Structure formats: structure tokens, C-alpha cells
Amino acid sequence: MIEMQGVYKTYPNGVTALNGLDVRIQQGEFVYVVGPSGAGKSTFTKLIFREEKPSKGSIHINDLDLAAMKERRIPKLRRNIGVVYQDFRLLPRLTVYENVAFALEVIEERPAEIKTRVMDVLEQVRLKNKARFIPDELSGGEQQRVSIARAIANRPRILIADEPTGNLDPETSWEIMHILEEINQTGTTILMATHNREVVNRVRKRVIAIEDGVIVRDERRGDYGYED
Ligand code: ADP
Ligand code: ADP
């Protein structure tokens, strides 16, 4: 579960990105986070991953209290959270296989286990046949699927996707959505920050709208709600 109470975030330059945010997300939910640029969506997701600390308020991720958490516990938190970015962030000189394996090597997973896991997740994103390719040899959608495979290799309880379809054409975006839904069906919580109106309106999920650092709308099967 993700729980935030009275969360404020003011950056060192004085910009207040979150202005008293309260939210509770149960394990296994699929949540779209929408809102205009600069509303605080990225800050919201960065707090969950402990990339940023709140200036005020409490954040609990499962049994971890993020405000009180010691720095040395951050790796343990991050092992339970996968992150997917709009621009994929793959390592260009590594193959698909190596990009995914790398995520497991850094946490010192056993080599035999790494092999099985990498092939399992590549199968999940339907890229087993491209394990030896490098990112440049793949389409945008395929690169995003590699980045999803990397994010779930560790079997995280939470997957954060920050505009995962932002660089993709509509058809490829549906493919990515389909894969995210399959991951969600295995019990993984999905938080997806997005500007993709077609996706949000067609694949109905909980919608949290953030504006000026507060939640202005939270609907169980909401729509996108903006004209952009
Ligand atoms: P969104 O993801 O909805 O576009 P952000 O969370 O990125 O919103 O940004 C919210 C506000 O915080 C914006 O005004 C942005 O300029 C500011 N901001 C974001 N990150 C930083 C940072 N590292 N330092 C200072 N200001 C920041
Ligand atoms: P899209 O237009 O959907 O982004 P592309 O035209 O880039 O897709 O790629 C179509 C297919 O060709 C993909 O399966 C991709 O993996 C493969 N492909 C693209 N570029 C290369 C390359 N340089 N070497 C090998 N395969 C490639």
C-alpha cells in the first residue's frame, strides 16, 4: 500500500511542487496520474521512489515509513519499485539481454537465477527473439518493452511508469498498455503518469488528477478530463 498524508514538497529554489497531498493506493491498483505540466506529477512519483524527500507530511510504502527511513534502507525500498521512463533510458552498448540482466547484477542476484529471470521477463514483453539486439536495432515500442522488462525483473510490488507512451505512436502505445495490464494482473501496483487522453479514456482505471500540487480529482474509473 502507498499512503501519503499532508505531503508538501518545496524544492531548494523555493518552488512548491506539492501542496498538502493526501492519497491512499491499495496493493494491486492501476492508477493514472494526470494533470497539466508542472502540476507535481513527477514529484509525486519521485517521492515514492525516494528520489526526493517530502518537506512535510508522511509517506508509507507497505511497512516502510519514508520520512523516518535511514538512507541505508533506500536500496531495499527501491528493490520493491520498478520505474519506466518516457525516454526508455537503456544502456546503448548493451544488448537487450544485458540491459535487463544488469538490473539484477547490481543487486547481486545469483547468475543462474539471473538467466532464468531475464528470459522470463523478455518472454512477458514478447522480446525473447531479440535478446541479442542492441537498443538502436529496435523500434521505439520494443525499446520501451525492454525498459519494462528491466523494471519488472526484480519482481517489484510497485511499477511507476512516467509517460511510458509519450514517445510512441498510438498503435505502439496500445501494445505497451496491454503489457502494463498484464503486469497489473499479477498483483503489481501500477502508477502511470500520462498525457495520453485516448489511453485513459479507453482503458478505464482509477484517475488521480493533480493541479498545483494537490489532488483535484480522484475517480475510480475516471476519464482524462483535459483538452490538451
Ligand atoms: P509535472 O510532472 O506534473 O510536470 P513536476 O513535479 O515535474 O510536475 O514539477 C512541479 C513543479 O516543481 C514545477 O514548477 C517544476 O518546475 C518544479 N520542480 C520540479 N523538479 C524540481 C527541482 N528538482 N528543482 C526545482 N524545482 C523543481
Ligand atoms: P517502428 O516503425 O514500429 O518503430 P521500425 O521500423 O523501427 O519499427 O522497426 C521495425 C522492425 O525492424 C522492428 O522489429 C525492429 O526490431 C527491426 N529493426 C529496426 N531497425 C533495425 C536494425 N538496425 N537492425 C535490425 N533490426 C531492426
UniProtKB/TrEMBL annotation:
One of its GO terms (biological process) is cell division. Keywords: ATP-binding, Cell cycle, Cell division, Cell membrane, Membrane, Nucleotide-binding. It is found in: Cell membrane. GO terms for molecular function: ATP binding. InterPro entries: AAA+_ATPase, ABC_transporter-like_ATP-bd, ABC_transporter-like_CS, ABC_transpr_LolD-like, Cell_div_FtsE, P-loop_NTPase. It is a peripheral membrane protein. Residues 2-227 form the ABC transporter domain. Pfam families: ABC_tran. Belongs to the ABC transporter superfamily. Homodimer. Forms a membrane-associated complex with FtsX. PANTHER family: CELL DIVISION ATP-BINDING PROTEIN FTSE, IMPORT ATP-BINDING PROTEIN. This is Cell division ATP-binding protein FtsE. The gene is ftsE.
